[in-house]
């Protein structure tokens, strides 16, 4: 670990981030990104210390050294933790799963994140129903298991905003490369708003931006930012790293057209589908359809009900509900290539 981390030790253990750091120290879902002043309550980030999982690839803010090499999760802390996680998580993500374990772990995850990411804020619902979505879709580079990305997806649900999601699992080939080349470093979430030309890292900044621009004067919901450090990691842990690493046999080429997923962040079954889209590195249009969403009439028309998840795949003409069926379909359709040499 870097010397500078120890130099700040005293203030660090007293900071809001300390409990989260302890979790991250054992979590393979994130590199150990410790941001001072990252309690979600203030945007004044004075210094960032980034300790990459891979001992051969360490960097601090200011030195934008980049590498074209795809990070090999097998050389990271994952190599120690993944066998355990894989055992707990049921091994091969494409293999049949224990339905009870799946329901229980995703259910507990949703309970941990109540009340965020389920319901559209009333002021926003009225505005969205009247004037619809912003003209161009946002682009969100993220991965499902990342608690900071979850924070942004929760805000999108509450603001009833759709987005193009570009999953960046560990071992991701296409999307991580894009973030590194455009943003300068591999850190998630990374967000672009083509309506304003704004792009940014830092989940709390992204959430504040979304509320200020599209929130009808609302501040971020009470606890949305702060709670990430308390329970934002629960789904990551409960789901044993699902939605974190690229599936070894994910097809190398993305499908011609983006899939479309009706979902809302804290829906326990939609989470399972998003994990799979992430593991297969499949870009998709996320139609957030929380309670009160303006997307629900369209969903009702296409699906015959407002239940989520509901997937539309314009590449094959398939559209379906039921998370179990969608997951099986996705692995069968997009998970059959020669094993990817860099995937974990
Ligand atoms: N303070 C940042 C923290 C972001 C962060 O630590 N993201 C982790 C994932 S949870 C990351 O990008 N890790 C690098 C990687 O996965 O390669 C934020 O709130 O956005």
TrEMBL record:
Residues 136-218 form the GST N-terminal domain. It comes from Sphagnum troendelagicum. Pfam families: GST_N_3. PROSITE patterns: GLUTAREDOXIN_2, GST_NTER. It comes from the Eukaryota. InterPro entries: Glutathione_S-Trfase, Glutathione_S-Trfase_N, Thioredoxin-like_sf. Gene3D superfamilies: Glutaredoxin. This is GST N-terminal domain-containing protein. CDD domains: GST_N_2GST_N (cd03041).
């Amino acid at each position: 670990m870097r010397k500078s981390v120890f130099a700040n030790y005293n203030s660090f253990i007293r900071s809001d981030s300390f409990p989260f750091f302890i979790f991250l120290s054992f979590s393979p879902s994130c590199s150990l990104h410790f941001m001072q002043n990252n309690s979600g309550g203030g945007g004044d980030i004075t210094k960032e210390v980034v300790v990459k999982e891979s001992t051969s690839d360490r960097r601090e803010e200011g030195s934008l050294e980049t590498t074209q090499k795809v990070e090999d999760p097998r050389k990271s802390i994952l190599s120690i933790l993944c066998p355990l996680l894989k055992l707990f998580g049921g091994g091969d993500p494409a293999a049949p799963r224990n339905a009870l374990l799946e329901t229980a772990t995703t259910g507990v995850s949703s309970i941990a994140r109540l009340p965020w990411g389920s319901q559209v804020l009333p002021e926003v619902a009225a505005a969205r129903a009247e004037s619809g979505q912003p003209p161009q879709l946002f682009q969100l580079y993220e991965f499902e298991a990342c608690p900071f990305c979850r924070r942004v997806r929760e805000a999108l649900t509450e603001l009833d905003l759709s987005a193009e999601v570009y999953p960046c699992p560990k071992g991701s080939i296409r999307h991580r490369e894009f973030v590194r080349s455009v943003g300068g470093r591999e850190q998630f979430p990374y967000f672009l708003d083509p309506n304003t030309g704004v792009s940014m890292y830092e989940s709390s900044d992204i959430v504040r931006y979304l509320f200020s621009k599209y929130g009808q004067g609302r501040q971020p919901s009470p606890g949305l930012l702060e709670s990430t450090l308390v329970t934002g990691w629960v789904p990551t842990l409960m789901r044993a790293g699902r939605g974190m690493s690229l599936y070894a046999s994910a097809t190398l080429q993305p499908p011609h057209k983006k899939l479309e997923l009706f979902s809302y962040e804290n829906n326990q079954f939609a989470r399972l589908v998003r994990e799979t889209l992430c593991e297969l590195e499949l870009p998709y249009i996320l139609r957030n359809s929380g309670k009160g969403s303006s997307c629900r009439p369209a969903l009702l028309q296409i699906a015959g009900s407002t239940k989520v998840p509901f997937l539309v795949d314009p590449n094959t003409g398939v559209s379906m509900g039921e998370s179990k069926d969608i997951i099986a379909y996705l692995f069968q359709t997009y998970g059959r290539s020669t094993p990817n040499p860099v995937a974990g």
